[in-house]
Design a protein that fits this description.
There is one protein chain. This protein is of the alpha+beta class. It is built from seven helices and four strands; from the N terminus they run ααααβααβββα. It folds into two domains: 63 residues, Arc Repressor Mutant, subunit A; 84 residues, Glutaredoxin (3-Layer(aba) Sandwich), CATH 3.40.30.10. Helices cover 49% and strands 11% of the residues. α6 runs parallel beside α7.
């Protein structure tokens, strides 16, 4: 086993041991695994099921039931566009289209090839008075426009030293 693979499973073991290999703490274990790996890789979920003595389907069921968990790698910067009623009425769809165009993303591809950006829509961010709302890296931006949102992403791209995607 290569050293990086061994290190990956060593980190997973440490997390599982922290929770005393208790299957009743599966959600907390998965939360910490996702924090460590930025998503829940299939081999880590299988490892968790074996270490906890529960079925892989039980682990997968929890990981897919809660929307907080992701089975796909996400970019360094996660952009969430609210499409709840207030935001939708105030044209959040236009913001989504502008960002898809800027980042070269579409309905099927939500993460840029360089793993720098992930674009998501969410049902509600709970900031209806600021509609339309965009959250970038857990920072809320209200009263957004397509142009303003594109400018925010351009600023991040400049800070990261990245050019255009399209």
């Amino acid at each position: 086993m290569s050293q990086s693979i061994a290190a990956k499973f060593d980190r997973a073991c440490n997390i599982i041991d922290k929770y005393e290999r208790n299957p009743n703490k599966l959600i907390a274990i998965l939360q910490e695994m996702q924090e460590e790996y930025k998503y829940l890789p299939e081999e880590i979920m299988t490892f968790v099921s074996t270490a906890l003595g529960i079925s892989p389907s039980a682990v997968y069921g929890v990981a897919t039931f809660y929307s907080h968990f992701t089975l796909e790698p996400k970019g360094k910067h996660v952009i969430k566009i609210c499409d709840g009623t207030a935001c939708h009425v105030k044209k959040s769809e236009d913001i989504l289209k502008a960002l898809e165009k800027q980042l070269g993303l579409g309905k099927k591809s939500k993460t840029t090839g360089d793993m720098l950006f992930t674009l998501e829509t969410v049902a509600c961010l709970g900031a209806c008075g600021l509609a339309p709302v965009v959250v970038i890296d857990e920072r809320v931006h209200g009263l957004m426009t397509p142009e303003g949102t594109v400018a925010l992403v351009e600023k991040i791209k400049a800070e990261e030293g990245v050019g255009n995607y399209v």
